Model the fold of this input.
Amino acid sequence: MALEIRQSLRLTQTLIMTQKLQQAIKLLQLSRLELLGEIHQALETNPVLEESQYEEMEVPREELAEVPYTPGEAAGAEKSSEGTNGEDRSSPEEWNWDGFLKDRLMPPAMGEYEEREALPFESLNAQKSTLKSHLMWQLRMAGLDEDTERIGILIIGNLDKDGYLRTTVEEIAGEVGTEPARVEEVLQVIQIFDPPGVAARDLRECLKLQLKVAGNQDPVVWAIVENHLPNLGNRNYQAIAREIKAPLEKVIQAGEVIANLEPKPGRVFDTEEPDYINPDVHVEKVGNDYIIRLNEDGLPKLRVSNFYLEAMREPEKLPDSVKSYIQKHLDSALWFIRSIHQRQKTLYKVTESIIQFQRDFLDNGLAYLRPLTLRQVAEDVQMHESTISRVTTNKYIYTPQGVFDLKYFFNSGINMSLGDQIASESVKEKIRQIVHSENPDSPLSDQEIADILRKDDVIIARRTVAKYRGMLGVLSSSKRKRPGYRRKSLPETVAS
Done:
């Protein structure tokens, strides 16, 4: 069969997402902080788009009545264009700029400032001390020679935030051009610095350094640190006692001493600031109703520049290139403003639907959280599931029960004996409460927890309890058990 090149025409239909549609979809899934960055980027790249600093200066245009988007107000809300004296201020040239600047922008006279005593110099320094700066200060105070101090600087520079040395002595020696034994000597000097245990290469060395500083010479403690840390982590005291041939009570006491040591010496110098959640939506109960308020504090008020609007009033006076440039950016600005407004509108509708489904949770707490899927909300607001998924991504909501991720309200259900379902998050909370109220001397197994839940009409398997317990960060019953209990006639000394 011969091969040949042939041309043919075929008519097909394909769905192509335009750049504007891609931008609108992108805005849906942005968090509040990301949206703020996107708005600032648009303000920098689009000259037609500008931020309104004063509400008095937002001059409405009849032909763009639905264009300006002001956070906290519906799109297209008209504002009065008249001044306090009834004068028309629709044209920027008619503004009394001298009086405006004098009243709004000019600082008060020097005599109007309140006289205050200047703060002392030492109160102006608010910089926190870091682990490396603390060690560098001790290194400089140690009175070492220049070469030794250089090695010490390299050692301190290779410490992680927990205070562990994350390189080898050989690598540092190769970089400095000296013997590894010399670097080892400097390392031992740094290891006696504060905090105790710093510059260790592993957990075992870190704990041994702290025991030296504390002057602890207990052979049982040292034996456990040297060879039995895995068994100590699993609370397998019987195995430790059998291996080191020591009384079980002595092993338990040694384990308590080791538990009081610091596995991460650099933790006290951790300068990372906590990440605070700024909710995207606030839900407050007023009477018997829940009021939804979108958090738009700090979002710039966007509008189309009056300068370019005035220029487009007489397009015949503009060159074609200028007219095309303005029109292109004007369309982009209008679409961006509408996209933000549509994002806020969609977020409001989805939140309203979630409140309808989870009203019992808002009224009574986590035990009343209902199973909910994206499809249920999508059918309620008449949108696609993908839209619901995007608009609930990276969004947080403030409720009378606390601050939650919007995805938190979408969870699977666990069957109950009467045919109803309970949310998986509610089951996790029940497991947490059961573990919290158990006898620490005799912790409950996963099967026992499953049996207790069955008494509450929650049908759940043991492996599901183990899965949820792991998600909650709860240890198994053997590791939750207090040491020294349920001993069955153990001898004082365990023979080998």
Q: What stands out?
A: The chain has a mean pLDDT of 80.
